Amino acid sequence: MIHKLLAMPPVWRMGLIILACLVLASAITLWLRRRWPERDLSELTARVRAWWVMATVFFGAVAVSNTLSLVFFALMSFWALKEYVTLLRTRPADHGALVLTFLTIPVQYYWIATGWFGMFIVFIPVWVFLLLPLRLVMAKEPEGLTASAGTILWGLMAFGFGLSHAGYLLQLPSTPGSEANGRTLVLFLVFVVEVSDVMQYVWGKTFGRRKILPVISPNKTWEGFIGGVLTTALLSLLVRFLTPFGVWETLGVSLMLCLAGFAGGAVMSAVKRDFGVKDFGDLIPGHGGTLDRVDSLCYAAPVFFHYLVHYHIKLG
Amino acid sequence: MTPPPAPLSRPRPRWPQWLFFCLIVRPFFALFIGLRVRGAEHLPGRDPFILVANHTSHLDAVSLMSLFPLSRIPRIRPVAAVDHFGQGGLLTWVTRVCLNVLPVARKGISRENNPLPVLLDALARGESLIFFPEGTRHSGEQVSAFRSGIAHLVARAPQVPVIPVRLVNMGRSLPKGALVPVPLFCEVRIGSPMKPHGARQEIVRALEEAVRELG
């Protein structure tokens, strides 16, 4: 039995681990509801149910093909950018530039699909950065132009450029001496970041006392942060077969991803506060919008990608 | 009494409108815009009714029609100004065939082109009207002053429920003069049906207030 499991391709082994996590989460929710029937656990129930859907869609895309996974990440970028731009105080003169902003997403993912690393890495930070303000200039409305250019380009960097690093992971060649390839690395990244979010939430809800960022994000506590990070580091050892890392490196990398993810979550919380909203949207029951789910990934994906490219994987 | 409407010589085929909504409008609002609807329970289950909304975009009428089941869409008529939509070309074809608009005169009203009998006839046939009392598309998210035409219609059809609706972000997504929509989340906020009565000015004020309060 164990031999058969170990002989499975890593992606399918990961599928079983995800399934086990979901079953465990549902079982715990059920137990909590039996144990304390008077407590309101509807938010938890909705969150767990949404996790089943999100994990199935994400894992399904990754398992089927790289192209489908890229489409998945492109849709994440598109939907997150859409939630962000909807909340921006855009001017009527920004219309043309906003059309270009959304066109940037399919183009950026097209570079990824063709494996053109050089273009992928400069397209938004260089070319869109240079061209978008020109489109704003063409609208002949200088008042508020700097604010528009700044806010639009920031969103493109976070949700177009940052998040698309998760997509480029899929194009990475397999590393010699391990089972790791682009697909398994994407699974590792998303698993660590999302487990870290969940664990910080669980530890924070259970033991949270001291707030880390009382002004920005009152729900984040030191207890949640430390408990979440340590639990995630331990759990990441369970999925080490997805990576080319040894034990200590796995622990280090997952710690780094947790910190990056936390930073991403904090930044997006601050942005929400600036906009005066609680969530970015209402697409995912119990979670808010897409952006509320991918905020940590926007930071963790580039960090993970550049770590890999620097230390492990030679690009063409 | 208005005379009964003359029967159409050839009933307009319904399939272009059906295809337009199935293949373009619904996917567009679901996947590109992500239309959010608040107060859908206030939408009347039967025709006729008069829907009154603020107007900022060409998306307005289509988004409102897309809220109804396909079987009812042919009976829902956006009221459109002939001087804008009756000039020929693609816009006229789309609005006539796909939206099935009810063209009325907006400028130079005389006894011959008075829109009131046209609108009352439609209601009498059991058709519902989508009406933009601001008279034209405005920029910005504020509700502009309503024109008095709507009051004449409401006063003459006191039994028909009037539904106030506030449209949000449509004008940011596809403003006047723009050809390409930006995929911003748009929202339709539907208020509870009303039957305003009294003097014309009071009716106008009541409707304007109702739409503004949904902001």
How would you portray this structure in words?
The complex is a heterodimer of chains A (316) and B (215). Chain A has one domain. Chain A contains eleven helices and two strands. Helices cover 75% and strands 3% of the residues of chain A. The longest helix of chain A is centred in the C-terminal third of the chain and has 29 residues. Chain A has 316 residues and is an all-alpha fold. By secondary structure, chain B is of the alpha/beta class. Chain B has a single domain, classed as Glycerol-3-phosphate (1)-acyltransferase. A seven-stranded mixed β-sheet of chain B has the order 1-7-6-2-5-3-4, with helices on both faces. In chain B, α6 packs across α8. The longest helix of chain B has 19 residues. Chain B is globular, with a radius of gyration of 16 Å. The model of chain B has no long low-confidence stretch (mean pLDDT 89). Classes of the chains: A mainly alpha (316), B alpha/beta (215). At the A-B interface, α4 and α5 of A face loops of B.
The proportion of residues in beta strands of chain B is: 5-15%
The arrangement of helices and strands of chain B along the chain is HEEHEHHEHEHEHEH
> How many β strands of chain B by DSSP?
7
**How many structural domains can be distinguished in the coordinates of chain B?**
1
**CATH level-four homologous superfamily name of chain B:** Glycerol-3-phosphate (1)-acyltransferase
The description of the largest β-sheet of chain B is: 7 strands, mixed
Radius of gyration of chain A: 20 Å
CATH architecture heading of chain B: 3-Layer(aba) Sandwich
Q: Count of helical segments of chain B?
A: 8
